[in-house]
Amino acid sequence: MAKHFLTLNDFSSEEILKLINTAEKVKSGNVKPNVLGDKNIAAIFEKPSTRTRVSFEVAVSQLGGNFVFLRGDELQLSRGEPVKDTARVLGRYVDGIVARVYEHSDLEELAKHSGIPVINALSNLYHPCQVLADFLTIKEKKKRMKGLKLAYIGDGNNVCNSLLIGCTKIGLNISIGSPKRYEPKEEIVEKAKMNAKKSGADIQILNSPQEAVKDADIVYTDVFISMGDEKEKDERMKTFLPDFQVNTRLLKNALPDAIVMHCLPAHRGQEITEDVLEGKQSVVWDQAENRLHAQKAIFMYLF
Length: 303
Ligand code: CP
Ligand code: NVA
Fold this sequence. Notes:
The protein is of the alpha/beta class. The protein has helices at 13-28, 51-62, 83-93, 104-114, 128-142, 158-170, 186-199, 209-213, 233-240, 248-251, 274-277, 284-302; strands at 40-45, 66-71, 96-100, 118-120, 149-153, 173-177, 203-206, 218-221, 259-262. The strands form two sheets. A five-stranded parallel beta sheet has the order 7-6-5-8-9. The protein has a four-stranded parallel beta sheet with strand order 2-1-3-4, with helices on both faces. The chain is globular and about 55 Å long. The chain starts with 12 loop residues before the first helix and ends with a helix.
């Protein structure tokens, strides 16, 4: 049966740590794998992307494979062809699928019917490739992960969900500061609690950003309006601003050597200020670079 990379919840702590180790080795140049030699990888993108698309395309090329980029709106999928039909056809042509979709269930359907590995390049529920790169960045900057405190400020979205799942798998304490009604969904929090029982990670879901950030080693934020949420723009802006912005005042509650992370794209003046994003504590450019190394580790695990 094909292996997939849809959510970090499908992986043990040991497997996640192994993926990070592999990414570190690849980054250091110690291994030059050709795991995708003669393999074709289809990439379905239903939403825009800069980092994920380019890092995947370059990773596939550097691993010896061929990348077949497919815009969602140019596929028959956009005209109603069922996902399971698309999956079975792609499974006859290519060796793996990378997909950025609106509905997480579409990834599960692709995985179920294609017979080849499927990688989640972002869905409404999760962004696991992002969080793998984030962990690589945290390990590089802090030299450890277990026992640290990560504070996520803002919308309880796909990135927040993957952080919740990933952190609780590996024993990284996580504190979420979200406005009421924008907290992560109960179903995700329940999964995280199950993981935390095993890893010993502490989870806090708070409505106070100051409290969430208190003594944090890592302060993380993401956009207030995710792709697909555009129609809620006005309401979200009113709810999130000014309290849920990562700025110097909020950052003062974290540890003095805290690092600031953002999956990007950033909206300066909304979820983060220019001075914090460009400031000394920000690690966002290394974080973005690490997407490339992490994607390679994922391919090395799947192929
Ligand atoms: N962080 C991230 O996934 O960026 P893109 O939307 O540019 O791929
Ligand atoms: N939460 C954001 C992440 C973008 C990389 C979105 O889904 O649009």
